[in-house]
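Problem: given the chain below (86 residues), write out its structure.
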Amino acid sequence: MSDHAAPAATATTAETTTSSPEFDQQELAMFGKDDGHAVTVIGKMLVGFFFYSLIVMSIVAFWTMGRGGQVPDHPAQDSHAEDVDE
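Solution.
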């Protein structure tokens, strides 16, 4: 196998951080601003969905408890239909 030497880095770290061949500083600032706005909107949506779910869950829980849950209103019988002799 042949060993290939890594190309020597001629640019300093500061030069590569500040200049980008794909985007200029204005575009990078715009992307950062747009990302910040998207994070804020998504966070607000998640908080809204959480509180909506909490309110609906509480209403259904109180409604279920107020109606006695899933217990039938009639008194319990002594035997079930399967146990009755014919």
